[in-house]
Amino acid sequence: MLRSMHLPSSGKVRVGLLLVLFFVLIAVFGPMLTSYSPRTSGPGLLQPPSAAHWFGTTQTGQDVYAQFVHGARISLLVGLVAGIASQAVSVVIGLVAGYVRGVVDDLLYILTSVFLVIPGLPLLVVLTGYLPTRGIVSVAIVIAITSWAPAARVLRAQTMSLRNRDFVEAARATGESRLRIIFYEVLPNALPVVASGFIFSTIGAILAEAGLSFLGIGSLTTVSWGSMLYFAQNSQALLVGAWGWVVPPGLAIAAISAGLALINFGIDEHANPRLRTGKPRRPRRGARSAAPAPLTGELVSSQDEDRLAAEPSRRPVEVPGEPIIAVEDLVVDYSTEDGPVRAVDGVSLTLHRGELLGLAGESGSGKSTLTNAITRLLRSPAEVVSGKVTYHRSEDRGEVDLLTVPYEQLRVLRWSEIAIVFQSAMNALNPVTSVGAQFDDVVRAHRPQLSVAERTELARIMLRRVEIPEDRISSFPHELSGGMKQRVAIAIALVLEPDVIIMDEPTTALDLLIQREVLEQIMALRDEYGFAIIFTTHDLSLLLEVSDSVAVMRLGRLVEYGPALEVYTNPGHPYTEDLLSSLADLGALL
What we know:
The structure is a single chain. By secondary structure, this protein is α/β, with parallel strands linked by helices. The chain has 23 helices and eleven strands. It has helices at about 10-30, 65-100, 100-115, 120-130, 135-145, 150-160, 165-175, 180-190, 190-215, 225-235, 245-265, 265-270, 305-310, 365-375, 405-415, 425-430, 435-445, 450-465, 480-495, 510-530, 540-545, 565-570, 575-585, and strands at about 315, 325-335, 340-350, 355-360, 380-390, 400, 420, 500-505, 530-535, 550-555, 555-565. The longest helix has about 35 residues, at about 65-100. It is elongated. It starts with 10 loop residues before the first helix and ends in a 5-residue tail after the last helix. Mean pLDDT is about 85; it is low at about 1-5 and about 275-300.
């Protein structure tokens, strides 16, 4: 991500960076510009600013400038340490709670809520009062303990949203561990939230340290901007005209806080690669988004229900290869408040080696639920009620019931033997991770013995196989066209040369020309590698063109199943007849 960093274009961010850089330079180099120690007393008491004492002196003759520049180190260090510690706790609790859910989420949610409802300043005062030592590190840790909860709550909500994204689902399918998914897939996409939390935690820590010191319960033995204000107040500095003792530290605290807040405006620009390529385009005046036509979920009127309730049409599928996946009487329900909803109802079909099985049906017919059940990627509230999914492994390695096999063994099977191309490559690719890194995640999870160079070369080979320039290995998804993204997703699915690939509407959202190119690529790769395909789509005409066999689903049931040519020339179910008739009316089959 750092390769694309550039100076932000926002004037606010530039001002913020300059302010923060100014005070960092003061903290680093300021003490070198004075010969006085911040604790050394001199003969000149409460002297005004002069060439000898730039900010004047205190009531004991101490140099105020020396205190200011040494105090800058302490105040900024407290903010940095407390900000890092606070965000470390927030990240761990927020990510784990949002991703794992269940009892873990409930317990962490309660813990976070407790720290949110306790008033921060009183808790900070109480904890500081019981410290065995009031050193700067101790104060920073106490500030972190009292400030992590708000950021953790925001991160939990962000993680709950990200965990349902297709690229996280793809990471689960490739066999990545839960810990790696949390910190390598989810966390990079939550970086804007983490960075914002760190900035405001740092601001809060600087203000909290100044407040504690001003109240006299901080580390008064250490010179900081807060302790300067404490002693200046006790000595009534403003009343005696010693403004140089009060204004610089007070102004510095306000300025550094404002600078950090201004930097927050540029966080999205740095963390989100989509925003690095230029300013977002503004919509043209008067332009309106085209609203999709409402979908009824049915292709026929209610009076045709009796006709469409005919018995399913099943014909023997003769394919040269041996069976590789056999689905037997699979039933999947979704639990709702009104009772279970049956999404897959007694489906049985067989995929043979080298076969392309087309799975067609309208939205809500159960296609994706069926393929997710086969790969065991269903999420609550979906539940497999009954049935069996048998995977016949190659080289006489036996049979595996994919619905009951232990999860660790399932992780090994996924992607190395059964790979998936998810519905939309725009969402299935991690938007903040390069193409090469996403190849590397898959290969490292299943081929840990390969070196980094070998994994990189394998990724380059697969990109060439799908006709993408190998220098695109360092590109981010937003730098690729829709067709290129889809071919990258296919290349990642093929990188371990699996026996089966499940493609869930791989041509969705692509124009007709790009669809044709992707389909030709898929067919060429199938001829080269010999894998079997379950190809899911709404486009029945497309399936009839490329498939060996076709299965048509409606309302969770398999209403038509047989060789593609027979389904086209002699449909056995009224629903299939209606679909073919509608395609013929549109000229799709002419």
